[in-house]
UniProtKB/TrEMBL annotation:
Protein name: Branched-chain amino acid ABC transporter permease
Transmembrane helix listed as a keyword: yes
Transmembrane portions of the chain: 29-46, 53-73, 79-100, 107-130, 150-171, 205-225, 240-267, 279-298
Molecular function via GO: branched-chain amino acid transmembrane transporter activity
Major subcellular site: membrane
Assigned keywords, A-Z: Cell membrane, Membrane, Transmembrane, Transmembrane helix
InterPro entries: ABC_transp_permease, LivM-like
Amino acid sequence: MVPLLVLLVVFALVPYGLAKFGKGYFFQVAQLVLIYALLAVSLHLVTGAAGLLHLGHAAFYGVGAYVAALLGTEMKLGFVWGLPAAGLAAAALAFVVALPTMRLVSIYFAVATLAIGQMIHTVLLNWVAVTKGPNGVMLFSGINLFGWPVKSPVAVYFLVAGLVALSIWVLHRLSHSYYGNALRSLREDDQCADAMGVDTVRLKIEVFTVSAFFAGIAGALWAYTTGYVSPGDFGFNTSILVLAMIVVGGLGSLPGAIIGAALLILLPEVLRGIGDLRNVMVGIVMFVSILFLPKGLLGEVSALSLVRRGFGLKWGSAPSEREVGWR
């Protein structure tokens, strides 16, 4: 939990310092990092903890964004109602589509989630009467908390940071509880877990739904901070980007998902000066990290730390709970 708190403190202080120099653009980048960090951590619950390869996560991110934007423009519901409604709508849709698909395993589950993501993206793109099709939806209402408008970049950033921190804390406690142990039993051997009395199908449906809820929250934050949503932001490329974040950071590591999100969002911004070549450079970094750091950035650091500590232990002794419990 300590590395998680350190990361959140860093993200809280850096943009505040940049604001002193009048660089409001960095607030937008920092908000984007936070939103994608929540998106990556929510996917970590399904793919990292439960071991289910989910290739359609961006679709529920898009559902949350569209629900928040449409409630704000069509029904004039503000941030206080739109945010939870976005999460609940994404969770409800995930629950419905999970019922017939959660009995699938391995690559069949991955293909099913890919198909679900593509179907939802197609609906967002072509249901012009509701989603406005390729034109997207403009959200002009901004963020309003119980009658108090939140307008300054500093206030908006810290509101987003607080909500993301709270969401990540909930996901952290969930993945480090007895429920999280049950999820990890699915990852290690779902047949053995089923033989031990774990209702694997029910567990898959639950974790899929919870993950979609927080993806919907991330989508609502995206809609309220950018003021515009369009189908292009929630396609298959976004799902792969989020999956790459948790792989590069360290599959199965919650802080690693946050680090992966920060790296893959900030790196293109740092390389903006080289134009379109930045996408090539980002691809090279991802390829090299996966090739030479198969456990991810945080996974390799953790492994090296355990090796160093192992020299002071008897061979064959297991690492303590403190050494591995923060992952």
